[in-house]
Amino acid sequence: MYRLLIVTKDARVEEMFASMEGWEAMGYKPPRLRSTVDDAKECMRMHHIDAIAIDNDPAFAPLNVYMDEQYSLMPVFAIADTEQSQWAIMREVYQLLNQLHADDSDDEYDEGYRLKMVQERWMKKLLSGMAPTRDYILTHHRMLRCPEKIDAPFLRIRLSIPQGDNFITERWHYGSDRLEVALRNFFGEEHDHMKLHVAVISPEEVRVMVSANPHKPDKAEVSPDRALGYIRETIEQIQNYLGLSMTLMDTKTLTSLTALAAEECRSEPNQ
User: Fold this and answer.
1) Are 148 and 189 in contact (CB under 8 A)?
2) Is 27 left (phi over 0), alpha (psi -120 to 50) or beta?
3) Alpha helices, DSSP H only, in 34-75?
4) Predicted structure pTM score
């Protein structure tokens, strides 16, 4: 069973978690509750914890820093206003923990790699406009411990595939998922001071996110000209090696990852 830690000073939150029944049936041990940063740290040192919820109280800011430094792979889930909403969150946390801890291959278990794969699926969901609301993005981005800053500007680049389905069915033969992996290998995860994410949205469209590399804080901004130059070079390489032609549809600078919420994307043309 998974083990949880709830860190809060709010008596109402403590009462809500204390009144929630059926933890074992959902696959959890009853959560531990702590009200100070020091007590939370001690709890994590003394006990195995699979996921944590931290109240938004400013007093817990040092704990968030500690989590980034010492427990960067541990899911951080949201505290809801109602018991019903909290159970919905706990079901999602349970599914995430199952993905991170599933023993479904002959390879050596690597939680970091599994979390990275979950993060990539999340970024594809964002690029596809499938995250419904701003709040949804805020809570899930934190829960998945994504390194990209939520409020940092980035470039969203849309590429068209003129061949569409014909390339995948007649030349590629491996499906869109494998094509996405191949394109990620060409573009790379990082280039210079840029961080990249690639998503095959449909047989006719690919989207690329280019943001500042969170691991290089001295480079805070991305040059659109430099980014587009790299994209064009990579498109040419893909054409030469795979025979896949792509053309630039449009480039847009967005101020925050929350701008990718479906409620925001509906107002954009050509979505």
Assistant:
1) no
2) left
3) 37-46, 61-70
4) 0.86
